[in-house]
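Example 9 (inverse folding). The structure is encoded as follows.
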């Protein structure tokens, strides 16, 4: 599932590709991927422009030149591609937005969605999300206060979008490894030093992953050399049985609170 780095990478790459370019047509092949009548959806988009793209947690918000916003959540298996008909991957699309001959393809939206809202509706929609990890207002002191209030283990805490927004299965494991803490540890039982390491790990891992285009390997467009470059840099995620980069012990795959988890039992404690 795309997480904060993947969605932020999409946002940055899409801005010069689609912003301020007129939407010429819309195709919808799966009505469950949208939240309004297909004809209404199409009428509200065709002829408008995307004036800006915002990311909030794992969502992308496409602000239209009208009073409407498209809210995208890719969920499990979703991804996007920008190109012409000849470049399009051989995959089923659920929604396609046309910009002349170039198109933005939404692929794998079986659980995900592309919903249309007015600007005034969006804050309520996202109200339950926790703070962004990179918010300057989220100081180490604020982070310590937040984590002390959590009784669950670190794996559950980090992927809880009401705690911090944007972290999922991959980066929760990478963050715990970076901090040297086992994901099964209780969040409110960490020492002050461990809380400090965890705070630094959240920023370091997410910033690095964003800088290298996240871990999802499917390119956004033909010639895209950035998207997915972090995949080979993951220290523990999806590396079961491989040697740990730090100590050489085998990476363990486990299930913690019904969630897939990867870690090193030797150098995480």
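The amino acid assigned to each position is listed next.
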């Amino acid at each position: 599932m795309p997480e904060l780095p993947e969605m932020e990478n999409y946002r940055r790459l899409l801005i010069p590709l689609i912003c301020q370019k007129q939407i010429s047509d819309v195709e919808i092949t799966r009505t469950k991927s949208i939240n309004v009548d297909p004809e209404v959806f199409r009428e509200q988009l065709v002829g408008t422009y995307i004036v800006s793209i915002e990311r909030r947690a794992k969502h992308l918000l496409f602000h239209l030149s009208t009073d409407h916003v498209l809210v995208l959540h890719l969920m499990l298996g979703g991804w996007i591609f920008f190109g012409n008909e000849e470049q399009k991957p051989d995959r089923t699309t659920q929604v396609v937005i046309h910009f002349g001959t170039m198109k933005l393809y939404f692929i794998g939206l079986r659980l995900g969605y592309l919903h249309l809202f007015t600007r005034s509706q969006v804050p309520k929609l996202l109200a339950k999300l926790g703070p962004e990890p990179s918010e300057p207002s989220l100081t180490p002191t604020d982070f310590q206060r937040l984590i002390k209030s959590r009784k669950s283990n670190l794996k559950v805490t980090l992927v809880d979008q009401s705690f911090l927004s944007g972290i999922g299965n991959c980066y929760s494991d990478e963050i715990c490894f970076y901090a040297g803490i086992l994901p099964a540890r209780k969040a409110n039982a960490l020492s002050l030093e461990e809380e400090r390491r965890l705070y630094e790990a959240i920023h370091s891992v997410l910033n690095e992953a964003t800088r290298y285009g996240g871990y999802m390997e499917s390119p956004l467009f033909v010639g895209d050399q950035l998207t997915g470059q972090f995949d080979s840099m993951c220290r523990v995620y999806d590396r079961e049985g491989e040697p740990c980069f730090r100590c050489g012990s085998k990476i363990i795959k486990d299930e913690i609170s019904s969630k897939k988890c990867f870690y090193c039992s030797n150098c995480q404690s």
